[in-house]
Amino acid sequence: MFAYVLKRVAMTIPVMGVVALFVFALLRLAPGDPAAVIAGDYATAEDVARIREQLGLSEPLFVQFFTWVWSLLQGDLGTSIFSGKPVIELIGQRIEPTMLLALTTIIFSILVAVPLGTIAAFRAGSLVDRFVMLFSVGGFSVPVFVLGYILIYVFSLNLRWLPVQGYRSPFTEGIGPFLSYITLPTLTLSVIFIALIARMTRASVIEVLEEDYIRTARAKGQSELKVLMRHALRNAAVPIVTVIGIGIALLIGGVVVTESVYNIPGLGRLVLDAVLARDYPIIQGLILFFSFIYILLNLLIDLTYTFLDPRIRY
Amino acid sequence: MVDQSTQPDATAAIPDSGAKDISLWRIALRNRGVYYGGVMLAIIVVIAIAGPWLVQDPTSLNPMNRLKAPGEGGLFGTDQLGRDVFSRVLNGARVSLVVGIFVAVIAISIGLVLGLVAGYIRWTDAIIMRVMDGLMSIPAILLAIAMISLSGATLTTVVAAIVIPEIPRVTRLVRSVVLTVREEAYVEAAIAAGTRTYLIMARHVLPNTIAPLIVQATYICGSAMLTEAILGFLGAGIPPEIPSWGNIMSEGRTFFQLTPWIIFFPGIALAVTVLAVNVVGDGLRDTLDPRIARNMR
């Protein structure tokens, strides 16, 4: 087990290396002088020279790469060109809304999708099942931001139940305001996630329900609820958890869009502001940061398999 | 959508000769999803091709006729510059379909080559797959935004930026098919008979990738249209002068409280188009690829 954990952790190193190489190459392979691209159309020659200096663009490529990776390993994600602040500090300032939105979305989605998918599998072919399948196809077809605007239109502008846009911190402004502001963004972002998880839960539970041990459990007179909860869902857990991990990538993309729709001052907004200002170190730092989170979460999920399914041994 | 009544035909999974391909399509069309989704898609394609000829110029300004409600100024109303939203939405269909089709074709082609190489030439496997793992861990939208902001927003850069994050999935799919086929008795027989590698690839490996790739292509097409709209909406997509659905919705944000239809009409058009593509994709998966269908039932 310990050897496996070590091996699995070691496997993430080349993946992170590839990510770093991609992000590094992105700026250098872009057409034209990267310093001039970042400086923008109205930059003076001094501006371009200053940016080239700041990003170390005059060094040989491999020197640039290794100095950059070395500073990354020390936790230095670079410095914003315009504000002059370290990128890691800017991320720290904006991370709270993003993390909380992602968290509420994951919790809400799992609470809705797993029971929904299980019921659909249990009553395969029924009306509930058809509804779940329809929802899961539809959920992948509606763009996140259109959904966001529909919810704003219905619940904020017409019914006036919830605020239109913005964010309130649960730590400084209390749980009540936080919940009223986070509800619509969470619903918006959850739809695609629910579609994904419900579909996988259904498929996975249907497969497990055909197993011999389910028949055995039923034959010995166990109630259907116990069959579902104790035997079916437990054995169906691994693919469900895997798909949640894959869905994190989807979630990160969705967060950027949702924050833009609801005017939430999180990491998504930081990216978009950085794009407008051509503040490349911020964009670069955020891509690395999100990729790191994705790799880390999927590593953790891989390691939980043994707890979910004792048959898996390494 | 899954159709319980039409169980996938086992023979449909082996598209190995030209004659069978025809019956393959006939089997696919028997699936309700393929049929209805296909009809819906055909209508959308016709509208996208013919529509723009029938309406006024989507870029013509009419300052006297700004922010009119649907019915009052054109079928879908007008935007803040007095442009006809109906005409703009019709023209946007072309952009979406072009992006969707181009992205699907390019991503499938690149992924097919990489997957065949990784699956067949053993020493390249580890290298290609690690690169794909890395690419897969970068959030697609962020990568696209970064690429477009660095290389300038044109139709080409937008397509390229959407293609690159799609490649790993195709590569993985092709590689897994190659690895499975390589162990088959008929491939061993071909090797034993001295058939050259490229002939084995062309005759035995490639035909087995066709069915799953067609299915994958429809999903990529749908998700590419969504990504294009998201990029346009965020202001990081196709140049704003082109009336793509994403751009129309992006411009509609300012006056959303007053004129929500500027976002809703292109949004509905996009959702219906992507839904049609996805329904066709699910139907094709059920009929062409029973192996995946069994897992996703």
Task: Give a verbal description of the structure.
The complex is a heterodimer of chains A (314) and B (297). In chain A, 78% of the residues lie in helices and 0% in strands. Chain A has 12 helices and no strands. Chain A has helices at 2-29, 34-39, 45-55, 61-73, 87-122, 127-139, 144-158, 175-209, 212-219, 224-262, 267-277, 280-308. In chain A, α5 runs antiparallel to α6 (127-139), α5 (87-122) runs antiparallel to α10 and α7 packs across α10 (224-262). The N and C termini of chain A lie close together (5 Å). By secondary structure, chain A is an all-alpha fold. Chain B is built from 11 helices and no strands. The longest helix of chain B is centred in the C-terminal third of the chain and has 37 residues, at 197-233. Chain B is elongated. Classes of the chains: A mainly alpha (314), B mainly alpha (297). The interface between A and B is large, with 59 and 51 residues.
Order of helices and strands of chain B: HHHHHHHHHHH
| Outline type of chain A | globular
Radius of gyration of chain B: 22 Å
End-to-end gap of chain A: 5 Å
- Write down how many β-strands of chain A occur, each being a DSSP E stretch of 2 or more residues: 0
Question: Main attributes?
Answer:
heterodimer; A: 314 residues; mainly alpha; MetI-like fold; 12 helices; 0% strand; globular; B: 297 residues; 73% helix; elongated; disordered N terminus; disordered C terminus
In short:
Chain A is mostly helical and 314 residues long.
